Amino acid sequence: MKPIVFHVEAAGEFRPVEFTFASESEVRRVRSWRKMTPATDAGEFAALAAKRWFYYTREGASVASLDELRAAIKRNERAELAFLMVASAEWAKRYKFLALAYCRRTWCHHLVLDFLAVRPRLQFAGKPISGIGSGVFANLADMADSLGMETMWGEATASSAPFYEKILRTRPIKDLFIIHRDTMRNVREYYLADQQSRLAKTTKSDHIS
Amino acid sequence: MDDLLEYERTHEIAFASPRALLEARMIEAMDKARRPHRRAHRNGVAHRRKAVAR
ipTM of this predicted complex? Predict the structure, then answer.
């Protein structure tokens, strides 16, 4: 499967990030976020998401690629399956992974987002990198839509609700967000339009300079 | 999108479903409980029992 690619702002430039299913060795590496100092929620959540992935793997209920996901669904259309997605970039190789998302495909073919974490204090050329969280979420919604999932949902907390409100352009989000295919497509279209506009601005300024 | 990008620049993006977090912590606790005690066999040396005077 070709990796999903989205772009983020890094030091005034628009740079590509690859978003892929994590293999077992990549899930192991995700655990090392916990060693970051000072300790962060992202570090803890990454390690716990990895633990959960291994637990599901022992139960035969995790997948490490889109092909594996499709095959597992074909074998049992009511299968509950877990997978970890990771975002990485060649130009930011010092960080193996920039972000992760732990998701589940439920028995009725919905997508649940259980963990979403962007590696804290990401920098490129001394400046923060932004757009990774929204890129991950928008592409998960797009993936859910392309897999024919009618619904994507997740639990929101006081700290995550503002993020979901902004990316879904819905207020208020309380302890649950539930989006259906029309919203998945809206998120994708809005996100893609913004990406194209930013890429075009970058290209234009490259030509001028 | 500008407000979303600004939000990402100024806030840690680290979200967990409370239920998933609880489950993951329980899995971690179970894993820790299952691990054998290592101290007794460090460096291949058996745990020494304190000699009891008789």
Answer: 0.87
